[in-house]
Amino acid sequence: QVQVVESGGALVQPGGSLRLSCAASGFTLDSTAIGWFRQAPGKEREGVSCISSRERGAYYTYYADPVRGRFTISRDNAKNTVYLQMNSLKPEDTAVYYCATGHPGRFCGLGPGSYANWGQGTQVTVSL
């Protein structure tokens, strides 16, 4: 059974850092893209970042404009986990963060409609 479980959310002050984890089971992690998304109260779910499947020994990463330069996505295939390192956090980063499985290939989009097997989410709150 394909499953992903998010963890690592917390309350953090503006300018702080968090690392979210997306633990995968039931499939080979590097055979598919993994995406991170977030949803703030009253807003639609939006793509944050994604990492591609392994393509000729390389992985490709993509970021939404609001987080580029502050967030870093990575994967540890030995641990079957994808991480989202979030630095310089802002109050507008407050949301429930989700990970989900995408499709194999070099390009992984940030549209939620292209993803499946969503986790339950982890809450990130950036506030004084």
Description of the molecule:
The structure is a single chain. By secondary structure, the chain is an all-beta fold. Helices cover about 0% and strands about 40% of the residues. It is built from no helices and 10 strands. The strands form 2 sheets. It has a 6-stranded mixed β-sheet, with no helix packed on it. Strands 1-3-8-7 form a 4-stranded antiparallel β-sheet, with no helix packed on it.
Low-confidence stretches: none
Instruction: Report Rg.
Output: 14 Å
Q: How would you classify the helix and strand content by structural class?
A: mainly beta
Share in β-strands: 35-45%
Shape from CA axes? Answer: globular
Report the span from N to C terminus.
Answer: 40 Å
| H/E element sequence | EEEEEEEEEE
Task: Write a brief caption for the model.
With 128 residues, the chain is mainly β.
What's the layout of helices and strands?
Elements: E1 3-7, E2 11-12, E3 18-25, E4 34-39, E5 46-51, E6 61-63, E7 71-76, E8 81-86, E9 95-101, E10 122-126
Parallel strand pairs: 2-10
Antiparallel strand pairs: 1-3, 3-8, 4-5, 4-9, 5-6, 7-8, 9-10
Which labels suit this protein?
four-stranded antiparallel β-sheet; six-stranded mixed β-sheet; mainly beta; 128 residues
